[in-house]
Amino acid sequence: MQNTLKAEIILTDGRRMSVDLYPDIAPLSVENFVSLAKEGFYDGLCFHRVIPNFMVQGGGFLAKGGKLAEKKSAKSIKGEFLSNGVQNPLRHEKGVISMARTSVKDSATSQFFICVAAVPYLDGEYAAFGKASDAQSIAVAEQISRVPTKRWQHYDDVPVDAIEIQTIKII
Hints:
The protein has helices at 27-38, 135-145; strands spanning 5-11, 16-21, 45-51, 55-64, 67-70, 96-99, 112-115, 128-132, 149-152, 155-159, 165-170. The strands form 2 sheets. Strands 1, 2, 3, 4, 5, 6, 7, 8 and 11 form a 9-stranded antiparallel beta sheet that branches. The longest helix is centred in the N-terminal third of the chain and has 12 residues, at 27-38. It is mainly β.
């Protein structure tokens, strides 16, 4: 990757995940993530869906008193993946960060997920836009994926104890 940016996801418990962002592969996704991080959109949000041997997802909910409160206001962007007409060679392997979305291909807003295992069936269907910079960052994502979870309203795999993002810095 020629044009790499770095982001650091800092959790309220002090753990950190460093991520390399690839604007040459997914320029809209990187621009969206960077813009939201710089405006402080992610500050105080949580990882609201965590599944061992799959991924950890965050960037859309506040955790308040054991409940989730959705944070809206981020605009939708075009999904940068093959089934949506966009070449994206980045594979969903351990450490890859990708945009979350609904079943609508151009519905990604602020939510992202970090793979904690290879998930090849997501290739060509979700906009991968970066990768964890080091083994320690992957280890943090794996730790998050293994925390105890619960069902809350219609959401599954919600951490019992909130895992909150203090901030995301763009370096």
